[in-house]
Design the sequence.
């Protein structure tokens, strides 16, 4: 019930293509869904986040799509660039949980030039 | 702002040794946490703190201790290192809108 399942484990996309990473959850009480980006040798950094009252949020080339009925949310990277090559983590949290995040296992994204 | 800082960057320990991983933040955040990151397992919460003097266990607390005497500092102690504790350790503090700010990590190898 507390898990967030992330897929795929790894992804290779050509430069200029669309990268799509998916996450699924069971607990309908989750109310915050962030995506974090991690470059090799660095700590994760918040990329974009969404709450369940909206179905989509866009920031530049990055979009979160949220499907409440399917209990799924996904990250779309448009016009993918080699600089987007990183590991991406989805996460979720419950209200009044002291900000504890339940993390997906991560997706290693490689953008080929 | 230095953000979240961690020391050391890299450490090699022998089984049974103890050590303290340091973490400090200068953003005046009340909530801080320690994670370990292992390949294919994402980030797992070890301990967290909601303010000075208050700490609690996360998902994988065994073998680790924490304390929070000030808002700024949140050290993680390994009591008796084991090879299973070989990992990358991240400290994070949580700011507005639940955003977590991570340090650069400590890479620990236990032989």
Sequence:
């Amino acid at each position: 019930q507390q898990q967030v399942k992330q897929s795929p484990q790894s992804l290779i996309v050509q430069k200029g293509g669309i990268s799509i990473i998916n996450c699924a959850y069971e607990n309908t009480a989750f109310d915050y869904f962030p995506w974090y980006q991690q470059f090799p040798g660095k700590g994760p950094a918040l990329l974009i986040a969404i709450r369940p009252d909206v179905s989509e949020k866009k920031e530049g080339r990055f979009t979160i799509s949220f499907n409440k009925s399917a209990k799924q949310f996904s990250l779309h990277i448009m016009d993918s660039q080699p600089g987007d090559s990183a590991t991406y983590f989805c996460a979720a949290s419950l209200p009044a949980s002291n900000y504890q995040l339940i993390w997906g296992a991560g997706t290693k994204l490689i953008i080929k030039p | 702002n230095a953000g979240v800082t961690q020391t050391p960057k890299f450490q090699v320990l022998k089984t049974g040794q103890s050590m303290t991983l340091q973490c400090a933040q200068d953003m005046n955040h009340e909530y801080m946490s320690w994670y370990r990151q292992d390949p294919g397992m994402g980030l797992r919460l070890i301990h967290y703190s909601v303010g000075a003097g208050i700490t609690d266990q996360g998902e994988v607390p065994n073998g680790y201790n924490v304390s929070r005497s000030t808002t700024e500092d949140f050290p993680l102690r390994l009591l008796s290192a084991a090879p299973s504790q070989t990992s990358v350790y991240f400290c994070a503090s949580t700011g507005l809108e639940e955003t977590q700010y991570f340090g650069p990590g400590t890479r620990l190898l236990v032989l």
In short: The longest strand of chain B covers residues 43-51. The mean pLDDT of chain B is 95.
